[in-house]
Amino acid sequence: MSEHKTGKILIVDDNEDLLKAAKIFLKRHFAQVDTETNPDLLPILTHNESYDVIMLDMNFTKDVSSGQEGFYWLDRILELDPSAVVVLITAYGDVNLAVKAIKEGATDFVLKPWENERLLATLNSALQLRKKKMEVDLLRDQKQTLQQDMDNKFKDIIGQSEAMQKVFETIERVAVTDANVLILGENGTGKELIARAIHRNSRRSKEAFVGVDLGSITQTLFESELFGHKKGSFTDAKDDRAGRFEQAHKGTLFLDEIGNLPLPLQSKLLAALQNRQVTRVGANRPVDVNIRLISATNMPIHNMVYENGFRQDLLYRINTIEIQLPPLRERVEDIPLLADHFIAFYSKKYNKDIRKASEPLIKRMSKYHWPGNIRELQHSVERAVIMSNHNVLQPEDLFLQKMSQPEKQEESVSLEHLNIEDVERILIRKALQKHNGHITRAAEELGLTRSSLYRRLEKYGL
């Protein structure tokens, strides 16, 4: 007998003597053996614990011969957990009922009184089946994630500038390790593309790359989304579901917008990263996870630590290596390459015969500040391809007359010609300049909380 016992068994039968004898024998072979005489408690028991095998009597005191109670509770168990493994307990004369129950979802049956060795063999087989079912469920979730990854439009990073060559060198060095990586950069600079490139060049490249936008997850759904949940653990939990940590097992977990995470949730994330374990919402048993972590943010995360907006210990955990992505205005020589790439893509998508951007357009694009970076360039080219009647894009196709207002002139423009967002952007920039980038002081000047100011900084790409 192995010294390391595994497996959680639940036995439900109205015969207390049978339960005591079974528990005494089975505790020598399995990690946990629970017993219960009242089947009405099954929903509570299965909600509070994830059992590997449930042994269920076919007949209880309410109905001693037809097996209808057994069928009812079999259906309820499988409704609560479709992956449940149920072994029926039945008398010799009820074998036909047991065979019928197997057709309706039971795994196997044992006859009472049973032989201990036969019972043990049946439960060990059932335990292996449960393990396979759980693996299939996890593979299903990972396959869905991998399919979403395959559907991603732009996998390749485009750039030949010196700034991007330094980024490529860092990717090459860090990818082959399992070091945690923090990618810093403004909105639209391609942080997720860098994360995917690290994954594709790592030893985990054949496993899942699982991305999570932490900025879009509400506090109430954080644990469910990242750690998973059991069916019925909350109102919308209609099925057991693996969280993003489990889906990324043996692969890469990408936590985007990590700077947006509130402090209470930072503590929960740190605990999961330190322990390399997660516990699904509604479950009591932790699950080991083996992931490579890549995080990203456009926030001034080091300043946030100084101002107590981000945990220092979490920052140490996630930034073994930091990659700073340059904004598009600092890699102007890459603009022609990016323009050609997006023109080719959207010309094919919209069935247009547009071959390139004209030289005057490239010059004007190179002078533009691009506050939205590559994402703004991409969307601008898409609109131009849709609207243009030329084979070569011209400056007027990209609406650069409006876009190319020098950024420095923005603050001197009369307020009566601006909308509320323009005014807010100018005021925020002035407050930051006045206080030398000190977030807390700028927020106080503007009458905002630090978190509100951070959200506006993200919104306006400041």
Automatic annotation (TrEMBL):
Domain Response regulatory positions: 8-127
Modified residues (4-aspartylphosphate): D57
Keyword tRNA-binding recorded: no
Ranges of residues in domain Sigma-54 factor interaction: 157-386
UniProt xrefs under Gene3D superfamilies: 1.10.8.60, 3.40.50.2300, Homeodomain-like, P-loop containing nucleotide triphosphate hydrolases
Keywords carried by this UniProt record: ATP-binding, Coiled coil, DNA-binding, Nucleotide-binding, Phosphoprotein, Transcription, Transcription regulation
Origin: domain of life: Bacteria
Coiled coil regions in record: 129-156
PANTHER family to which the protein is assigned, alphabetical: ALGINATE BIOSYNTHESIS TRANSCRIPTIONAL REGULATORY PROTEIN ALGB, TRANSCRIPTIONAL REGULATORY PROTEIN
Protein's name according to its UniProt entry: Sigma-54 dependent transcriptional regulator
Organism: Algoriphagus halophytocola
